[in-house]
Amino acid sequence: MVIAIGFEGSANKLGIGIIQDGKVLSNVRRTYITPPGEGFQPSDTAKHHQTHILAVLDEALTTSGISPQQIDCVCYTKGPGMGAPLACVAIVARTVAQLWGKPLVAVNHCVGHIEMGRLITGATNPTVLYVSGGNTQVIAYSAKRYRIFGETIDIAIGNCLDRFARVLKISNDPSPGYNIEQMAKRGKQFIELPYTVKGMDVSFSGISSYIEAIAHQKLADGSCTPEDLCFSIQETLFGMLVEITERAMAHCRSSEVLIVGGVGCNKRLQEMMGLMCEERGAKLYATDERFCIDNGVMIAQAGWEMYRAGIVTPMSETWITQRYRTDEVEVLWRDD
Question: What is residue 150's DSSP assignment?
């Protein structure tokens, strides 16, 4: 029996979760929300995390019914992410590990998403679409690595949606992407937008710049509604993702797709991907907002796997990094 606690704070979500041999004991989260039209700055986000992290830790322990003495390892997000939020959460993880006398496990944020998705859905060896505010990757496992078959060459899909939300002053509560999704359901007109797929990679900066340039004029002259723009950007972006995911499936001869990351909660993305999977005789796996949005228990789960495989991080190496690619991690806990 191994019990792991995970600390996550790579962006505007602060999460602490505890897991015991695949059973989620607690999954507590706080979100830093800014006014409409504004993003979140690293320093302000770090202050939010610093303000709430001890209360979140106390709630996670209380909810789980686990004492610090019962915990086997303390896991934290090493990267990728925003520097200041990552650092303040890592400091707390290091501190409690020393106070409790527990080993530390430094976890790749992206691998955390994948391992949590595999645990919750039961997917065995899926082609993974990882879509979030800071990452867009199509991934498949091979020879002890999560190999990246395709990715964004500029900004992530979540960042593209966030920028679009700021143009229209869409609320950030609970998240810009969720509010865009709800508005898109009421869209009736499709507006053609740039569709940029380059082999296995995608580009979102062009569509972001284009829609920023045309949005206010189209809304002012009445040629479309905000809901039409939300519908159009979703259909275009998600179409690009389905295309590169299907191409990766064909290459890997895969019969499973797993969607992870915050944007993976979007029901329209799941619907479009599900149709593609149905046509290929494949199966789609996805999770709800408890586990697809950044959370602490996903870090605990990846750390649990690493700890059981004999991986611990010496205190001298418990730093953080804003750049930490998915394929840099040696996946020693999976059998080929």
Answer: E
State the Cα torsion 24-30-32-37 to the nearest 10°: 70
Taking only the tens place, the pLDDT of each residue in 92-110 is 999 999 999 999 999 999 9
CA dihedral for 228, 229, 232, 234, sign (positive or negative): negative
Q: What percent of the chain has pLDDT over 90?
A: 99
Say yes or no to pLDDT of 260 above 90.
Answer: yes
Q: CA 86, CA 144: separation in Å to the nearest integer?
A: 26
Strand extents, DSSP E, 63-144: 73-79, 104-108, 127-131, 136-142
Tokens of 288: 């709800």
Res. 9 pLDDT band, cuts 50 70 90: very high
Strand partners, 129: 138, 259
Strand, coil or helix: 178: helix
Rounded to an integer, the average pLDDT of 112-133 is 97
Burial class (CB in 10 A: 0-12, 13-18, 19+), 271: exposed
Please report, to the nearest 10 degrees, the dihedral formed by the alpha carbons of residues 310, 124, 28, 161 taken in order.
Answer: 120
Whether the Cβ atoms of residue 144 and residue 157 lie closer than 8 Å to each other: no
| Tokens encoding 76 | 């934290």
pLDDT in tens, 164-195: 999 999 999 999 999 999 999 999 999 999 99
- Mean pLDDT value of segment 22-44: 96
State the Cα–Cα distance between residues 268 and 273, nearest whole angstrom. 8
Q: Which pLDDT score, from 0 to 100, does residue 336 have? A: 75
Q: Please, are residues 274 and 129 in contact by the beta-carbon 8 Å criterion? A: no
Bridge partners (DSSP) of residue 257 are 127, 284
E strand or H helix at 237, and its extent? helix 226-252
- Contact present, 18 and 64 (Cβ < 8 Å): yes
Q: Alpha-carbon distance 188 to 50, whole Å?
A: 44
